[in-house]
Amino acid sequence: MGNKFCVTLKHCRTDGDKATLAFVVANAALGSDKDTLMFLMSDGVWAAVKGEAEKVVEGEPFAPLKELVDKFINGGGKMYVCAPCIKKRGITEEQLIEGAEPAGGAALVAWLSDDPACVDF
């Protein structure tokens, strides 16, 4: 098994539970010493917009999404945010949280070319 792990996220405002679970899994991968990428696309890009993660609170036993996102970034996780998806939603790069990097599909393909395990939410 390789050392890379990828979590793709397509939900935030539309399904806070999926957003929360995606970051729980991504943090578990980091905790297992995996080089971990979160690729946010579609509605999932909202998880990388300043002030948005605070709006998602799924309740016990889960930590608030904001805490999970911060833990992921502070733990060394890599976060790519679909550049065309943020453009479609009128989100600017300045609105993204620290550690979130706009990227296109080619960046995801490059990451996946090393054959990491990948899960989708």
Structure description:
It is a single chain. The longest helix is centred in the first third of the chain and has 16 residues. This protein has a 5-stranded parallel sheet. It has a single domain, classed as Hypothetical Protein Ychn, Chain: A. It is built from 4 helices and 5 strands; from the N terminus they run βαβαβαβαβ. With 121 residues, it is of the alpha/beta class. The radius of gyration is 13 Å and the shape is globular. β1, α1 and β2 form a beta-alpha-beta unit.
Order of helices and strands: EHEHEHEHE
Number of domains: 1
Report low-confidence residues grouped into runs of 5 or more.
Answer: none
Rounded to an integer in angstroms, the radius of gyration calculated over CA atoms is: 13 Å
Portion in helices: 25-40%
Mean pLDDT: 95
CATH superfamily: DsrEFH-like
The CATH topology name reads: Hypothetical Protein Ychn, Chain: A
Distance between the termini: 22 Å
In short:
This protein is of the alpha/beta class and 121 residues long. Helices cover 33% and strands 21% of the residues. The chain has a single domain (4-120), classed as DsrEFH-like (Hypothetical Protein Ychn, Chain: A).
